[in-house]
Design goal:
Layout: E1 2-3, E2 13-14, H1 21-34, E3 45-48, H2 50-58, E4 64-67, E5 72-75, H3 84-99, H4 104-116, E6 121-123, E7 131-133
Parallel strand pairs: 3-5
Antiparallel strand pairs: 1-2, 4-5, 6-7
């Protein structure tokens, strides 16, 4: 059963309690550890980017973005309410941008597959091309 997203109001989020910010940081660090030979050797920063909350209200696909050279991962609060397959797909995609910073969106997905061993699919229940997911 799905409950409304606390940010955009759409009913695509799981009805269980959200994960904690610390859990999200652990999930991101797991992926970065696997990709460590391919990303800059510096500390990653997970930032609660409030403008993304606003963007998420208008486009329910907007959960995260990254500044690859700084390893700065900017996320909307709504990412905490996603189920693990979607959260993992989003994070792997953003790490893919750090692995292949000049390769665009599909290049990030290819980099995630090549380095993380993670095939990113797109869940068509979200608008546009769908939301990243690892089934």
């Amino acid at each position: 059963m799905n409950s409304p997203c606390p940010i955009c109001g759409l009913g695509r989020h799981p009805s269980w309690a959200p994960i904690t910010p610390n859990q999200l940081t652990l999930e991101l660090n797991e992926l970065l550890t696997v990709a460590s030979a391919f990303v800059p050797r510096r500390k990653a920063h997970l930032i609660w980017h409030h403008p993304l909350d606003e963007e998420h209200r208008d486009s329910c696909r907007r959960y995260a973005q990254v500044i690859p050279g700084l390893l700065q991962f900017e996320v909307s609060e709504a990412i905490l309410y996603l189920d693990r397959p979607h959260r993992r797909g989003l994070l792997a995609h953003e790490v893919g941008h750090c692995i292949a910073p000049n390769e665009g969106e599909s290049g990030a997905d290819r980099a995630a597959l090549r380095v993380l061993g993670t095939k990113i699919d797109y869940d068509a229940r979200w608008p546009g091309k769908g939301l990243q997911v690892i089934w």
